[in-house]
Please model this.
Amino acid sequence: MAKAGGKGLTGKERAAILMVALGNEVAANIYTKLDDSTIEIVTLEIANLRKVTPEMRLEVLKEAQEMLLAREYMSRGGVDYARDILERALGPERAQSLLSRITASLQVRPFDFMRHTDPQQLLGFIQGEHPQTIALILSYLEPEQAALVIGGLAASLQAEVAKRIARMDRITPEVLREVERVLERKLSTVMGQDFTLAGGIDAIVNIINNADRATERNIMEHLEENDPELAEEIKRRLFVFEDISKMDDRSLQRVLREVEMKELGLALKGATEELRSKFFRNMSKRAAEMLKEDMDYMGPVRVRDVEESQQKVVNVVRALEDTGEIIISRGGEEELVV
Model:
């Protein structure tokens, strides 16, 4: 089913749309640079393409252009140089997303062979493994794939694996190779002698964010009971202030009834123009004008104060979600019919 714009497209769908958008001659030239496995995957995805809207095609082409520019900046002056230019042009969040994807593609990641495996097959393959082994594997998978796998684990095992991913820090190449020997697999490339970051809070947050609500609730309930400090840290990162831009208008209007205007004004001082506009659109004209005046009157404010106010708004969002008064769309959940 076609997505609005380019939102929600998988990597394979984006690659297929890009090939079609570039035309037969250019696509054929690109094919000569790809390995057989990638050609097979992209070709199958092209064959399964249905309706591709102009908005989707434009979004994918724009993203491809940004990736090429980011690679050029990196080759010209390194990661820091590229980050500085991209942040100025695209903003910090978009810049970091592009750089993360580029650096991840520069080398073959551990367990790369599993990233092309169906989640259900992968689930059956690792189900009997030790929780630490499962945590290590999931920390290297794409969040969407890892979310499907962790969602298929037993309830008690979900929380145990989540905890181990969050507590994971650095893994030596020897440990990685040993795990792969146990699983009777080999890495595509030999890793260097430096330590490799694996897991961590960000990894499990990305996985949970892509899991369905039931899986998230089960993991968080177990962690709140057994490791409340870790549970609080994960909960704090699960939904950030910028994510409010993805909420539907009705839910945002419900949130606005619970938020103090003083706190909201301070929170919006550090928001993008797009997010500010979304808030203003969901308020009465008079309330929006008064809020804008209050923000102007504040003048310069401390970043710490802005972040504290943003967190208070986020806490309201999560509280309303927990009571079922609003719904935040998550991976794996069914669409709603009104």
